[in-house]
């Protein structure tokens, strides 16, 4: 009995010490672990003059936080942007998206929308044709209120499953002469996290999200995305690329349940 | 109070037991009852009581008491309509009810799943009380509940959030449902996704009072967490609810249906602005900064919610 009490008392002391030691430590920064898991510990260079990341400081709606990634490479830079990885450090699945840019598409800007669960750093890591990784980061405060990274209208989200929309935008600085085009692809999909429980069976509903999206102008790849549950419901990507004179734009999306969604549109080649 | 209970008691043993129990309570926690603070409550119609929440965000200081919540007393039983933004607020509501009636609380009705309306539920959990909500409410709570607990722990501190339990309704409403409190009927109606995807209204037929939940906002800028297009589409139908006054989710008790006018104007402006932005190819971030800006001076908490309303409206309307 005495020994038991001693053990209890001792473990109590240890627990207390453990708690205070934790309390004194800096908050756990997941980034070093993420560099190991996602980038295999490859060296990270400062990406300040390679890429910019834009997000609102406060995530007004945790389910739909706009993010824009923009190339800062000068036109005469011999290096090309090949990949951009978007990491939301504190989300349950931090790797939000990995974009791969078609060799001839010269994509210079990508905007999408993500879920943000917590106060978090968001990293964008660009991989250039020189093989180097270039990192920039920003900080986002999760919103309070009734905002949540969940569907606003679950029924409507299910009804939209697989619908695809393409839109081409006019920009004053992007006439036909520059060859630059801005376009947007929308895919109706709940992009469920899998972290919600079925009220009847008490089993977790399996994750159900778009994990692959590929875009082509005619048969030339423009952009592909490997996505996760941090991409908002109804994945939406807006991007700027260089036209090769193609007449058609094509998109193919796959989800985790094996659905394949495909669609092709005529490009308005007036450049506007 | 305890003398009254003794008289009603069927046998002496129970009576003595009650007295001993009461003494024990008095000895161990002197003035326990007196110490339990009561929520400020107004009887806005006979047997219908309302607490008007502060027009504010939920904070540690206000204990989450920002929504309008209330209760209706029938001949046999009481129904509670929303429980507030913390168990502490829920307990204060319970104390306010017990100061006015000892009839059983048969129903707790949640008008939707947002934290300021459901975080007080645990104060009312017990075998004799049935939780009532929209058929979508269990799903909404299971998806969002854990996130809300995390988010509000940061904002309101551990001591307020530790005791919060996400309690789902077991009596679900699809279409409409009438609850009988004894010579007093409450007509519950489940709505399509509008403010949220689990909006429920409660009409007290006896006094023609509508508890509208967050389908109606006054003074507090409306918050859109469901579907702006549905909300606008069903505005006429909502206005036809046979009531003379409304208890909005936020803002003062007002005449019905004139109370809808400000909210309708805000939502119409927001939808029109967002539609115009989409038409000219503006990105979603621009909508957050500019849509419905003409409404800024007319509402409280505009800067806290308008950008998110605009973002949500944009992502809905761009599918038109």
Largest sheet of chain B: 7 strands, mixed
Tell me, briefly, the overall form of chain B. Answer: globular
Detail the poorly predicted runs of chain A: 1-26
> What is the strand arrangement across the widest sheet of chain A?
1-8-7-4-5-12-11-14-15
Q: Point out poorly predicted stretches of chain B.
A: 1-20, 22-32
Strand content of chain B: 15-25%
State Rg of chain A. Answer: 22 Å
Q: Please estimate the helix content of chain A.
A: 10-25%
Largest interface: A-B, 46 and 44 residues
Average predicted local confidence, pLDDT of chain B: 91
CATH architectural type of chain A = Sandwich
CATH architecture of the largest domain in chain B: 4-Layer Sandwich
Q: What class would the helix/strand composition of chain B place it in? A: alpha/beta
What's the mean pLDDT score of chain A? 86
Number of strands of chain A: 15
Describe this structure in words.
The complex is a heterodimer of chains A (272) and B (320). Chain A has 272 residues and is mainly β. Chain A has helices at residues 2-24, 31-39, 154-159; strands at residues 44-46, 51-54, 65-71, 81-88, 95-101, 109-114, 120-128, 133-140, 164-169, 180-187, 210-217, 220-227, 236-242, 248-255, 260-266. Chain A has one domain (28-266): Immunoglobulin-like (Sandwich). Chain A is built from three helices and 15 strands. A nine-stranded mixed β-sheet of chain A has the order 1-8-7-4-5-12-11-14-15, with no helix packed on it. Residues 1-26 of chain A have low confidence and may be disordered. Chain B has two domains: 1-35; 38-257, Ribonuclease Z/Hydroxyacylglutathione hydrolase-like (Metallo-beta-lactamase, Chain A). Helix content of chain B is 38%, strand content 20%. Chain B has helices at 2-8, 12-28, 32-35, 87-98, 115-118, 137-156, 158-161, 228-233, 235-239, 261-279, 284-290, 302-317; strands at residues 42-45, 48-51, 69-73, 78-81, 105-109, 130-134, 171-173, 176-180, 185-190, 200-204, 209-217, 245-250, 254-255. In chain B, helix 4 links the parallel strand 4 and strand 5 (105-109). Chain B is globular. Mean pLDDT of chain B is 91; it is low at 1-20 and 22-32. Chain A binds chain B through residues 54, 56, 60-64, 66, 68, 111, 113, 117-119, 142-156, 160, 163, 165, 167, 169-170, 186, 188, 195-199, 232, 234, 236, 238, and chain B through 57-58, 114-116, 136, 138-140, 142-144, 146-148, 150-152, 154-155, 168, 193, 196-197, 223, 225-227, 230, 281, 283-285, 288, 304-305, 307-308, 311-312, 315-316, 318-319.
């Amino acid at each position: 009995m005495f020994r038991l009490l001693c053990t209890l008392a001792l473990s109590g002391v240890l627990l207390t010490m453990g708690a205070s030691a934790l309390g004194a430590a800096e908050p756990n920064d997941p980034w070093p672990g993420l560099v190991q898991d996602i980038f295999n510990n490859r060296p990270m260079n400062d990406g300040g003059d390679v890429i910019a990341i834009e997000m609102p400081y406060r995530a007004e709606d945790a389910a739909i936080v706009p993010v824009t990634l923009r190339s800062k490479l000068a036109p005469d830079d011999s290096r090309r942007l090949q990949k951009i990885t978007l990491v939301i450090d504190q989300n349950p699945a931090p790797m939000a998206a990995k974009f791969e840019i078609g060799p001839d598409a010269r994509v210079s800007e990508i905007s999408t929308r993500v879920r943000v669960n917590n106060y978090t750093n968001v990293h964008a890591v660009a991989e250039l044709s020189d093989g180097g990784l270039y990192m920039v980061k920003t900080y986002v405060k999760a919103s309070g209120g009734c905002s949540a990274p969940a569907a606003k209208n679950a029924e409507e989200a299910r009804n939209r499953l697989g619908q695809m929309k393409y839109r081409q935008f006019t920009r004053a600085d992007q006439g036909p002469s520059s060859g630059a085009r801005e376009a947007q692809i929308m895919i109706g999909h709940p992009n469920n996290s899998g972290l919600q429980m079925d009220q009847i069976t008490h089993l977790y509903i399996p994750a159900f999200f778009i994990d692959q999206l590929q875009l082509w102008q005619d048969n030339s790849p423009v952009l592909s995305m490997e996505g996760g549950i941090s991409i908002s419901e109804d994945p939406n990507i807006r991007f700027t690329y260089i036209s090769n004179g193609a007449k058609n734009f094509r998109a193919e999306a796959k989800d985790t349940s094996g659905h394949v969604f495909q669609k092709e549109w005529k490009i308005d080649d007036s450049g506007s | 109070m305890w003398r009254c209970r003794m008289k009603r008691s069927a046998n002496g043993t129970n009576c003595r037991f009650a007295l001993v129990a009461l003494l024990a309570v008095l000895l161990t926690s002197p003035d326990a009852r007196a110490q339990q603070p009561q929520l400020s409550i107004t009887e806005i119609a006979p047997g219908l009581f309302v607490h008007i929440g502060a027009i504010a965000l939920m904070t540690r200081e206000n204990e989450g008491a920002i929504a309008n919540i209330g209760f209706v007393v029938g001949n046999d039983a009481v129904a509670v309509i929303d429980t507030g933004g913390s168990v502490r607020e829920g307990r204060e509501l319970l104390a306010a009810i017990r100061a006015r009636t000892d009839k059983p609380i048969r129903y707790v009705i949640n008008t939707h799943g947002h934290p300021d309306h459901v975080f007080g539920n645990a104060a009312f959990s017990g075998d004799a009380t049935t939780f009532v909500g929209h058929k979508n409410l269990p799903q909404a709570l299971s998806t969002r509940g854990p996130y809300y607990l995390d988010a509000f722990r940061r904002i309101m501190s551990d001591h307020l959030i530790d005791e919060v339990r996400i309690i789902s309704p077991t009596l679900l409403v699809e279409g409409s449902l009438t609850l009988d409190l004894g010579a007093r009927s409450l007509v519950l109606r489940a709505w399509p996704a509008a403010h949220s995807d689990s909006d429920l209204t409660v009409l007290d037929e006896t006094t023609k009072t509508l508890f509208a939940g967050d389908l109606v906002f006054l003074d507090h800028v409306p918050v859109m967490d469901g579907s702006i297009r549905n909300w606008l589409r069903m505005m006429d139908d909502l206005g036809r609810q046979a009531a003379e006054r409304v208890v909005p989710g936020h803002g003062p008790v007002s005449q019905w249906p004139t109370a809808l006018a400000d909210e309708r104007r805000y939502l119409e402006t927001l939808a029109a602005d967002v539609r115009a932005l989409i038409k000219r190819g503006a990105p979603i971030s621009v909508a957050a900064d500019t849509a419905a800006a003409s409404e800024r001076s007319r509402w409280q908490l505009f800067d806290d919610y308008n950008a998110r309303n605009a973002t949500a409206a944009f992502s809905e309307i761009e599918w038109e």
